[in-house]
Write a structure and sequence with these properties.
- This protein is mainly α and 78 residues long.
- It contains two helices and no strands.
- The chain has helices spanning 7-16, 34-71.
Length: 78
């Protein structure tokens, strides 16, 4: 598959309006233009970038919590 996305993913994107409806041939099969494929690849890249950004935020938050826990005094006997 040129877009490297599963059929289910593409159908979900179309159904939810993340991508415009894809043209169909006389048999009812979807016909993807190069522009459609490029749009799908671009969307996938944007999602991957957002995931990286969110993972960075998570890592920063977890590091802050870890540093705070390391700085807190420990009760006697531990």
């Amino acid at each position: 598959m040129l877009s490297r996305l599963s059929k289910d993913t593409i159908l979900f994107y179309e159904k939810t309006g993340l991508i415009p409806a894809i043209a169909r041939n006389e048999m009812g099969y979807r016909v993807y233009s190069q522009e459609d494929i490029d749009t799908l690849q671009d969307h996938k890249e944007k999602l991957a970038q957002q995931m990286l950004e969110l993972q960075n935020v998570i890592d920063i938050k977890l590091n802050k919590i870890k540093r705070k826990n390391e700085q807190e005094p420990k009760p006697d006997g531990i």
